[in-house]
Amino acid sequence: MESRGAGRARSICRVRLRRNEPTELFARSVGLDTDIVSKEMYTFEDRPAEFPPPPTMGEMPAHIEGIGRLMESGTIPRTESNVNTLKLLNNLVGELYPIREKTFEKATQKWIEFFFYLNGVQLGERISLRPEATASVVRAYIEHGMHTWPSPVKLYYIGPMFRRERPQKGRYRQFYQIGAELLGPSDDPALDAELIEMLLSFFERIRLTGTTLFINSIGDKNCRPAYIQLLRSELRKVRDRLGADSQRRIETNPLRVLDSKVHEEQAVIENLPRIAEHLCPDCKAHYSKLLQELELRGVAYKENWRLVRGLDYYMRTTFEITAPGLGSQNAVCGGGRYDGLVELLGGPAATKGIGFAIGTDRVALSLQSEHKDVAGSSKYELAVVGTTGDTWNEAIRLAESLRKSGAEVFLPRQGTRLKQALEQAAKSGVRVAIIVGEDELKNQRYTIRVMQPFYEGGQRDSSIAVSRAPSYAALIRVRSELERKLKTWAVASGLAPSAFGISSLLNLMMQQQVLPPKTPPLGKTWGGKT
Ligand code: ATP
Ligand code: MG
Predict the structure, then answer these.
(1) Threshold 0.70, pTM exceeds
(2) Among 52, 334, 357, 480, which one is most buried in terms of CB atoms within 10 A?
(3) How far is the CA of 397 from the centre of ligand 1 (A)?
(4) Distance, CA of 70 to CA of 78 (rounded, Å)
(5) Whose CA is nearest to atom 7 of ligand 1?
(6) CA quadruple 395, 397, 403, 407: dihedral positive or negative?
């Protein structure tokens, strides 16, 4: 476990999970009637290595005996269905052998039957590639006794998920999520609000703008069943006006009908009973406190009574965040409360939970549509540019010592022309380039170029003594850290939008007298010619 990045300030630990789990875990938690489990999961049987190849006619009795032995030794599971199938196969062989040479047609039929049942033998545990990770986090929580940790236990994960969906923009069969879960005995709506606020501040930090938070409460085990019953009976009345998927869901999972995007169904759905009017007093109180807590934190939200989410374990708080530039796959994050899940999976009943999962592929798409890099992805602070003959050797030596002093250094390839190298550096997000040219080598001084857009007044060169270059790198690190903090603060206090460049921000601060007016903008204060 480790603690990193956005979560460090909130003491959240990373949990590393397996990428596959017993199918049973997802079937029980996500729910059998959900699309994820019924259609989208990649599931396979963990076949034993020594399982014999399919038998020929003469090998059938020995084959069945072999399976029997594997079952006795525990290599293949001794399930009720396997025991029965084996009996059936034995009977079939008993019937097949006496007739196999006499009545060809009958024998063929038995032969086909034999293979049909043989296929039904479960050879090993059913395993699924994880379609989501909350179930795995809860499994880990239970397995490692985390209920004894100080609560709430805060965990986050990053990694690939797998769903068999129709691939399209923003929807892939292997996609990536960053998710977080908060587990503990309290279901205080303030925790829900804190989690959502953390999420939004993460989006702010990576400069994902134009997001909308949709929120809803879907009740709990006291009030939801009655609502579902009511919904089902209302849906049955309008069954003819719904498509095949929604018709099926009336019986299997009526809440999911509300999620439908089918155009013709929208008018029907608008007239269905709404859960907000059927919440029990506790759920109602929980929901209105949540809205209050969000307002307290200045978090803007939109209520959406049709937000139900495709997983069974959610209760009360559910939410989704959409972002621009994504077309119809515009949800970048989904989450909610799942108070009964830990108990359902065999953990302490008192443990409640709330979490979210961000779809990072879609976040990246949205950022790209706004022509933004994912913040932090261009991690280079410095470039060392010297690409020919002796200057190349010197550039490597300097880059090495700067890296040792902790700087992230961009080194253009040998032979790249100066102009091109600087362009590449600017594209990689470098803000300061150290130019190591022939003249510089002679004079024992490097040229320093402050790049746009950091220095908005245009590029400016200065010079630095060769021996001072590594300490100069340390200075840059301090500065970029300060700059980041300043921006976060300015955005949080509403002084400037996150898209504001640092020097315009400083100018703005001076105009508004947040900073003293005479303070020169950063970038002119040091590194000047000496
Ligand atoms: P959708 O309604 O778009 O199918 P979902 O409700 O199935 O989403 P969740 O299970 O809540 O999604 O997963 C959380 C987030 O993971 C989604 O908001 C989305 O950003 C992302 N996500 C889900 N499925 C995919 C996928 N197949 N490809 C890319 N991202 C995905
Ligand atoms: Mg989906």
Answers:
(1) yes
(2) 334
(3) 47
(4) 9
(5) 310
(6) negative
